[in-house]
Structure formats: structure tokens, C-alpha cells
Amino acid sequence: MKKRLFSIVPLLALLFLSPAFSETRANDRWQIEKYGDIMLSVSKTEITLKEFFKMANEATGLRFSYMNSDLPLEKKYRPKSGSKKLKERLDEVSNAFDLEYKEINGQIVFKKKKTGSGSASSLQQDQTFDIKGTVVDSKTGEGLIGASVAIKGTTNGSVTNVMGEYAIQDVPQGSVLVVSFIGYISKEVQVGNASTLNIQLDPDSKELDEVVVTALGISREQKSLGYSVQDIKSEEFTQARELDITNSLAGRISGVHTTQGGGGIGGGGSRIVIRGESSLNGANNPLYVIDGIPVPSINDIAPDDIESISVLKGPAAAALYGSRAGGGVILITSKNGGNRNTLGLELRSSVTVQNPGILPEYQDQYGQGVGGLYNSTRVDSWGPAFDGRTVDQVSGATAWNPSPNNVEDFYETGLIFSNNVIVTSGDEKQNFRLSYTNVDQKGMIPNTDYMENRVDLSVTSKIIRNLIDLKANVKYFRSESDNNQTIDPRLWPVSLDLNDLQNYWTVPGKKQKIWLDQSDNPYFSLHENQNSSVRDQFYGNMSLAYKFNDKLSAVVRAGGYYYMQQTQFKGGPGAEGTTTRGDRTTGSYSTKWSKGYETNTDALLTYDDKIGDLSLKISAGGNMMSRDSDWINGISYQLLIPEVYTLGNYRTFPRVTNAVNASRKRINSLYAFANLGYKDMLFLDITARNDWTSSLLYKENDSFFYPSATFSVLIDHMLDLPAAFDMWKLRGGYAEVGNDTDPYKLFQTLNFTEGSNGVAGVEEIKIRLEDNLKPEFSKSFEFGSELLMYNNRLGLNLTYYQTKTSNQIWPLVTSQYTGYDAVMLNVGEVDSYGLEVTLNATPIKTDNFRWDSQLNWSMDRTELKELTPDDPDRFITRGVNGFLYTFDKPGNRRGDLYSRTARKFEYDPSTHDASLSKYNGYYYFDSQKDLPRSDFEVVGNYNPDWIGSWSNTISYKGLSLSALFFFNYGNDIYDGFAKEMTAKGLAKETGNRDEGVLLTNAVWDSPEGIKPFQAGDEIAKEEFYGDFWVDTEINDMWIKDGSFVKLKELSLSYQIPRSLLSKTFIQSANLSITGRNLYVWSEVENVDPEVFVNAGSIKVPAITRSGGIPAPRSWTFNLKITL
């Protein structure tokens, strides 16, 4: 099947591409005659030469360049009004500026007309030679197509070809070459004696207005936006090769809090929150959009196929997504084939080495057992001291010695092999890009694996005299794992010798070696049990843009995703322990199959005009969204015939849960927006969207309106600022967005249950439903300023925002006498405000050396203002870990942690001696030296006071070194893992058990009265650490400062010089090594403080516990070759 699938893919690609490339030319030269009849309309009365080049490029796709660095690009002329042929326009601009033009290497090149000899008569004409070389981007090393290379003061020159190569004949010795390319800083280079001269050009962000992708996939100039948008280019995340691309966002964008999951195969998952947790029901995840089409996640997208990632942080930026935009929007723009006019081939290969980032430090004096005695039924390490005696353990009577490295030895070195092949071709009119990526992962847990295959195809084409712009993209993703299991060895006794466990059979197929009664040998679990999965996912979109005339255009787009997934658990025969269905010795089997899709179809009509100094762009359109999902689940607890894994092979009747038509949802939308500009310095955007959602169908409130208005003012265009100012912008806006609810919230539903004796059961969901539920609703405003100085070497971006979110949809617990457990209501108001700062600087910049630095900083305060007006004391809790809960109460900041606390001494002058006043707040033990429980209290808050990052890149010629530090300050962390280590006698402090615990922050009810612990009052360590201090309901003493600084990424790359590749078929080559999660500075020991846990559908950060896989420290070695 696999061979058949991958034989079909190229055929489909060929059939798909053949119409688009039926007009491909046999040579790579544009013919002026062929495009000379294209009509080019100019609406302005005056334009600059630079504006003409840009306008003609957009209208025709032709490339324009110039030979002379002193061409009057900013000088204006008066073009003829109306629509004229391109050839007439070229002649017109030539006459206006005394220029001439011709075609060189497929470019339309302008230069000044000769006024005399045209040569540098002062130079020695008899001392000339030929020179050649390449012109490349200083950052990427890629060749620049169409760059101008000319001898200063002459018209003798060349334009680079598709490889970035140039050649000039008869170059006088001692000449100066002027090298220029639109979008780059021009450079003058002295010619020496060498016949080969390679030149690097630096990108000039001031040369062309920076363009970013905004809502609906529309590209906009950054200067015109009245809201905050930050983007990340592909080179920032391709070197790290994260399997979950969202992990690459961590620390790169202000206001975005990304928390990496553990070290599981396939990426480990992540938690991402933009501008705080405004939704009580946990709907704080952003909306993901790929090429204008919403998708459930971006984990399945290969980094090599992404051109850029843009983050729309607030409602003002995301308002056009209406009821889906409450958590912000992350936009993915896919790469296309470019316009290099030849077939291109890019190869990238990498290998990533992974090991657990942080492992605990243990006491190594005592082994498994309790009360100082060995006990194989207990996982605890309160057993006897290691003294070499003989103890009957896993492999019989063996010496009682520690194995202090058993946890470290259990983990294997994880390996990820990634290979990517990209084929591109195209020109200014049409192109394609075909990418294939294969990922093969060996997990850090033994015998676990993961494999991905990704195919990405992009096609663009301008057809029918460039009036129609066709774009299409298809992505296919398949992931497979033969065994994906999580076993956590970090709480195993140090007496456990892994060598005794690895040969796990005593009677093959029937009896295994075990170290803990009623529990499987971990190597049995990993080799005899299989937890497999297969997932197929398709993404696709196609858009057709038609240009009616210079002012009116339309776009129709359709796309979506489809997935199918099956997971299976095959429990091997010989398992230990029992279940409610009996023993597991014959094996067990479970499977889950699911599928789903979402489609989006939208259309947009746009009118774009300029009336004098006023620019006007008005658009209107609509969207239809449809989403379905189904699943079925079945379990056979005991197999009749071992190793026959089907639901029909059962000894006890299987449990099958069938949810056909599990979820259906539709949203229909209409929207419109207007972009106004005045003299390219004042901008106003107004948007409006109305949603009709099926999840609130048949109710009065099924229609919801979301407006926004933003402005942008370029102060540098209005005032005569000092020369140091390149740009200064003020912006602001107001917007309203929503968070729709899940399907069937307004209908009484039933759940199928297991039932008994083969008869299925039905369970009614006892939640009373409100008739007029509305979507969650957010109103927000933001103000900001953007500043660029010193030729873009210093930049500052500030944003302040406030958001009020109401109509929270939540099931409030109600009286049991109503017949319901809860009632679903619109409740609560959550208010938030925050500040975001991004500072960019280039402190050093020379021809060969450059230092770029970026600092991101943000803070957010989100508070529950109101829950129900009639009951101000009502609060909401959600279980997180044992007896620890999240806590939401009016007046409190979101993120509170709630638990019982240990009893504290409260000094009372009326009953206590004055000498006890200094012990107020100490832990208060009873007369048995036990620590009683107290009431529930807020014990901490997991949200940080602020987060930040600092990235630096230092480049010298082709060598580049970059580092990314991530900061998390002011939050509390619940260190449940430390509590478990302590309870089981593994923590360092539980060693040296001949000594008791003498507390310094506690008092107790001694026979002499309340007093502090003194010599002679010690508590035995097993009694204290194994019982009192780790009471399952008391958690306040395990709340710690969660602040940390992490060296998130360190990368070293080398761009191999073109001179070393000049005699090969390789155009460019790059080597790099990148480390991730390299070091953490934190008060929290034994675990990575950057962690989250799943609490139902909610991801809660800053909670540590056992059961997962430690976040990995990784090193990735990359090789990238372009042919």
C-alpha cells in the first residue's frame, strides 16, 4: 500500500501541474515584445521612478533593475493619464529621466544614456581584464537574481543570472564596482587584481515597506496596521528541527507564552496562550490558519515548508475571524516555487540527538522496602541500608547494593533523522514547489518509535494575460508508531538493578520477572505490549483571484483538512495483576478509530482606488465553515486466544463505545472591511463580521456581530524629525471578538455506557441547559508605538492592551433537589490588561561582521471580576493533581492554586505567652508530632508576573552564532514530583536516617506546652518525610518560586564560501549545529520548571509530577544544499 501511494503521488502532481505549465518557455528570457501590449494604468498625477518599477512589476511580473547607482529613484515625473501599453510606459519613463533600457539575463535593465565616450577616460584603458563572481544575500548566502553590477562612472556592467552570477569584460584596473539590487543596500567594491570577486549585499528593510500577512491571508504593509503583529521567518525555526513547530515560537514573540511538553515521541506537545487566560472554560488556544484556511493545529507541518509565521495577538488583529478568534490567531504562510527560471533542487538532512534534560539526584544509602525491611510489595525506598548482605530480589538471592545510575541507564539516547527534498521551478508568471520530508525517530524510552512522511505541493500561475492568479497548495501527512509508551523510572528504588530486569521471562509467555508485586516488568511492558497508532491527514486549499480592471478584483478560495486515525493497544500474554474483569494473563486488546474534517469556502470582492491623496480599499465577502468528526472505541479486557488481537476474540464481553455522528458544527459568516490612507501617513481600518453558528441554532441568539476599528499615524511623515529617525508610528484600535461553544451545549444528550451482560447502557447528562446561551464575548482596545532609528539599526515596539471578556459558558453546580448536577449558563466577566515590548538593535555592523539583538518582554494581568451577580462568594475549582485545584473567585487573579494547608500557629495575646509571638505563622505540630490539616486556601499562582527573551546573532563572513535565552519570572510552581520523591524515601534529604529531623520553622504541643523543636525533639525521617510532610491533602509546603532562566537555543552555522563551490554543481551549502533546552537556572531541582499537565481539557502550567517523560536536551546537526 505504501509503495502504491507514493507511486500515485508523482503522477497526480504531474497531472495537476501540466495545465499550469503548458505555457512554459524554452528559454528563460522575457521578451519585451511579448508583454509590450499589456495595458498599464496610472491613477496618480505624479509618481517616482521607484514607484513605476514597483507598479510595473506588480502588473506584469517582469523584473526591473538599473545599472547606475545614482539613478533618480525618488525623483517624480508626470505620467500620461489613463491606460497605456507597457511599451509606451517604458518609453515614457525613459524620456522623462533621459534613460535607456534593454533586456539582460531576463531582466529589464535601465541605465543613463551615454553622453560622451561613456568610459572612464582617466583610467588606463590598456590595463583591463575580465572579472566574474557572484552576488549573494549576506544572511542566507542565496544568490540574488537580477542584481546590477556596473563599473562606476561607465555604462559597462552586467546583471546576475538565476545563480546570482555575473561577468564583465574589459574592466580597467583599479575600477570600482557599484552593486545594487532592489530591497538591498547598494555597495561599492574596489577591484583588485583577482579575476573573481564575490559580493554580499545586506537586506535593507527601509528600501521596501515591510509586508506581513494579516487576517484572511491578506498581505499588508506593516506601516499601515493599527494593531500588533509579529512574524517569524523560516530561517529562525528550521535549524532546530522541532517536531512540534509551536515549540519554536517560545521566546520569539512578546505576549505569547509557550510551554513545552515532555520528551514523548512526535514532539511531546505544547501549551500556547496569547495575552493571558481570558476564557474560564479553557478555550484559550489560538486559532491556527494555513494559507487562509483554519486548521486544528500546525504540529503536522514540516518546518521546511513554512515561509513565515505571523501572530495576530489581540482582537483588533483577529476581528475578521469573529467567534473563532478569542484566543488570537497564528497564521502560517507556505513556501512557493519562487521565480528563478530554472529547475531548482534543495536537499536538507539532519540528525537530532536527545537525552533527558534534567534527572533527579537520589540518596543512595537505602533500598526498597518500609520500616527498614525489604518489601517487594512496596515501591518505597524506606528499606534496609545497603551493606552487601544477601537479599532475595528479582533474580533470587543477590547482594544488597545500590544501583545509583539505574534511572539514567534506563533511558536510551533518542535519535531523530530528518531528510527533506525540495524541487522548485518557475518564473514571474508561474511556479511550482514539491517537497517531501521523512522523519524517523527512536525514542528515549526503549523500544519506542515514530515515523512521519510529509508531502507538500504548491502551485501558482498567472493566466489569461495576468488577469487571473491561481494558487493551490496540498499537504499530506502520515505518522506511524509501532510502540508509543510512557514509562517513568524516576521513582524506582536505587536498589533496582536493570540487568536483573532486561531478560524479563522466567517462563516465556507465561511468567515474568517482577520487582514489584502485581506490576509488570517494565521491559515486558515495552516489548510484549504494543501501543501503536497510524494517522493520515490532508490539508488543501485553492484560490482564484480575478482582476476585472485596475480597481476591482475578486478572490474565491476553498480548502480544509481531513484526518483518519487508529490507535491500538495489544496487551501481551503473561501480564501481572488483575482488573475488574479478572486477570490479564491471556492478554488484552483495545482500539479507537476516529475521523473528521473541516472545510472552509470564502469569497472576497475588493475595490482599490486612489483619489488624490486619499487611498481607498473596500472589501466584502463571506465564509462557510463545516466541521464533522466521528469515533468508535472498543476494549476486550481478556482475550480468549492469546495474541489474536480482535474485539471478537474475547473471554469476557468487550466494551464498545460507539459515537457515530459524534460532532457536527456549521458557521456561516459575512464580513466587510475598509482600508483608508491619506498621503501615505494616516491610515484607518474598519472591519465588520457577522456569524451564524449551528451550536446555538434554534435559539434567539444565533447571530453575532463583531466590529473593529484601528488607526495608524506615521509621525515621521508629519513632523520634521532629526535625521536619526527612520520611522515613528503611533497606532491604536478597538475590537470585539468571540469564543463559540462546542456542539450540543443546548440540547440534552445521552452517553452510551458499558452496561452489563452484553447489553449496552445509556446515561443521561444531568446538566440543565439555558435557552439563550451566547458565545463568549471579548471587547478590547490597544495602543502602541513603533520606532525605527539609525538606518533601522535600532527599533522599539510598544503595545498596551485591555480586554473584557463576558458571557463565559460554564456549568455552575446547582442543588441536587433540582434533579441536575449543574446548570449551563452565561456567567462571569474576566478583565485583563498587559504591556508588550520588543527592542531590536544592531550594535555592530561592518562589511564582514554583524551583531543583531532582540529583546522581548511582556506582562499580563487577568482577573475574574464577576461570576454570578447574585452570589459574589461563588467560586470555581478544577482538579489538577490529587487534592490540588485551580481556583477562580471574583477579585482574584486567574491562575490561583487551591489546596488544604498544614496547620500554622496563630499567636493570640489573650491566651499565649508573649514569648510565643515570634513563632506566629510557624507550622504547628500536635502532641504526637503529627502535622494536622487546616482549611483550603489559595497557596500560589502559576501565572508569571512577566516573561521575556533575549536573542543574539553574531555573524562574521559565512559564520553565524546565535543564542536564545528565555525568562519566566514571578510565578509559583507546585513541585509535586519533589513531594513524591520525598514520600518514597528517594530525595537526598531522606538519607542519613540515623539522624532524625529537627525542624527550625515549627512548634509543637509538647508536655511542657507549645514550644519550638529542640534537641531531643527530633522526628524519625521515615515518619516525618514518609508520612506527615507528604500528607496527600496538604500541598502548601510544596509551592516554590517558579522563576527560571533557560538557555533555550544555541546555534552555530557556516555558509560554505561560493569560491569553494564554484567548480561543483552546488549553488550553496550550509552546515549548522543547534542545541535546545541546554541549561536552566532555577530554584526548582530535579525537574524542568517549564512544564504543564493535562487537567481534563485544560493544560495547566507549573505543575510537576511523575508519570511523564522528561523534556529532552537535544543537539541537531544540519546540512542544507541547494543545487
From TrEMBL:
This is SusC/RagA family TonB-linked outer membrane protein. It is found in: Cell outer membrane. The keyword Transport applies. GO terms for cellular component: cell outer membrane. It is a multi-pass membrane protein. Keywords: Cell outer membrane, Membrane, Signal, Transmembrane, Transmembrane beta strand, Transport. One of its GO terms (molecular function) is siderophore uptake transmembrane transporter activity. InterPro entries: Beta-barrel_TonB_sf, CarboxyPept-like_regulatory, Plug_dom, Plug_dom_sf, TonB-dep_OMP_SusC/RagA, TonB-dep_OMP_SusC/RagA_CS, TonB-dep_rcpt-like. Residues 1-22 form the signal peptide. Belongs to the TonB-dependent receptor family. Residues 222-329 form the TonB-dependent receptor plug domain.
